[in-house]
Amino acid sequence: MNPLNRRKLIKQLTTGTLAMTSLQSFALVGNTGEETYKLKNNINHSVCRWTYGYLSLDDLCKTVKDIGFSAIDLVGPKEWKVLKDHGVFSSMCNGAEISLTEGWNDKQYHPTLMKNYTEHIDLVSKAGYKNLICFSGSRRGMDDETGLKNCTEGLKQLLPIAEKKGVTIIMELLNSKVDHKDYMCDHSAWGVELCKRIGSPNFKLLYDIYHMQIDEGDVIRTIKNNYQYFGHYHTGGVPGRHEIDNTQELYYPAIMQAIVETGFKDYVAQEFIPAKEDKIASLKEAIKICDV
After folding, report:
1. What's the whole-model pTM score?
2. Does residue 212 carry a pLDDT above 70?
3. Residues 135-158: b if buried by 16+ CB within 10 A, e if exposed
């Protein structure tokens, strides 16, 4: 092996992966040279589009297919044709929300949200997708109980439409300590209580592991105790929201194993912001870490 190739091999080894050889398998460097790693298919993998925003959607679709999975989170109706052209699934649809801060906890937004979500539920259903994201909105001095009542009132009007169309409305849990100051649905207990009050199998929570580690911790116990209310998961390294490797405090293999043990069959989407130079290698490594 000449020095140039040796340096290249060492660089690839530090990222944990080499080039893909075929669908559903990784080419890795092991103790005896190149070895093949095959995805176990216990986790349905996805990636959030915005975290790889430097790629066109076309290129991101090609990337995920090359790695061996076929789903992307947070793509709206105008771009679903691109996904379909590549055979990639829209694992979490968006576009009906007003914003992260203007949500279902404020009655003044209910008319607009009802219009938006009614239209998008129909679009999601016709496209053959099933998950549509929503947000609580900011507190702006509102107490938890008022927020729960307002969200329940608005979403109970929407859920019969979602149920009829086979669409699940999923509210994301976000941290209010670092990233989304004043966001109301910032603890799993609040979100779970909302699920109980709405009482529909078509309303669930997006348990964002990064966000909930920041605001409450106790991730595995929370998943095991409340899995029936969680319809989707996002990843991210803590602190910093970067790679989910050994540079951060969460041990994702154990978290993923806990999710698998609950019988979860929907999607886990990578939502870390890659900080390393080889961003595609970071995604490959994250998929392998979560592939328990």
Report:
1. 0.88
2. yes
3. bbbbbeebeeeebbebbbebbeeb
